[in-house]
Amino acid sequence: MIVVDGLHKHFGGFHAVDGASLSIAERSITGLIGPNGAGKTTLFNVIAGRLKPTSGRVSMAGEDITGLTPHELFHKGLLRTFQIAHEFGSMSCLENLMTVPGAQLGETLWNAWFRRGAVAAEEARLRDKAQEVLKFLTIDHLADQKASQISGGQKKLLELGRTMMVDAKIVFLDEVGAGVNRTLLNTIGDAIIRLNEERGYTFCVIEHDMDFIGRLCNPVICMAEGKVLAEGTVEDVKNDERVIEAYLGTGLKNKVKAEVAHA
């Protein structure tokens, strides 16, 4: 579904993404791991249109989408969430979901004045869909709660719910587990698996929790210093010498080896 070919993103002399090439298969849940500063979020930002690439190419279902804006990609079904949730705090959870679909009839003054029946009918359909999404995510009891008053984990579920309000084809999740307790993280994981299996969603997930990655993701891609280092099952990647070195550093890795040999 997504093919990244020789992607570079430079900030002055710093190469945040340095010739990365990878692919994300349709209907997969692909994990993206790597130490801090590996370039994972920058890669997401380039793919999702928040940053223009220095060079390289991104394609989606065979179509070149390099450099398209976030709203253009949104209409193609490519969405992303953020490590820090971006909710409308003064609005209810239900209202947060109802704002997602674009080009709503009530957005124009003409329709608001002269097509009130059509506007009301569309709003009712969106309300029904939003209530269905909240129920799917097991947070329907928060429908009327202000989004600013719910927990961090519930905000992550709400962000996931936004992707369900449109015809999402692929969703990029940036550290969905950050600051989330284990119970809610399991709920988020369950929702991702159900969306993948029942509704055909494709996911790419940045996450540091390897138990969460291991439960959800196959394949797993590891980045370091802006490059793709390894790809495979979670066990293959965890046991890869290059991945161990990227996380532990050469000196510490050799020290661990020496201690094991001595033992």
Automatic annotation (TrEMBL):
Occurrences of domain ABC transporter (ranges): 2-250
Superkingdom as given in the UniProt entry = Bacteria
- Report keywords, A-Z: ATP-binding, Nucleotide-binding, Transport
Q: What terms describe the molecular function in GO for this protein? A: ATP binding; ATP hydrolysis activity
> Which SMART domains did the record assign?
AAA
One cellular component (GO) term of this entry: plasma membrane
PANTHER family listed in its UniProt record: CONSERVED COMPONENT OF ABC TRANSPORTER FOR NATURAL AMINO ACIDS (PTHR45772:SF9), CONSERVED COMPONENT OF ABC TRANSPORTER FOR NATURAL AMINO ACIDS-RELATED (PTHR45772)
**Which protein are we looking at?**
ABC transporter ATP-binding protein
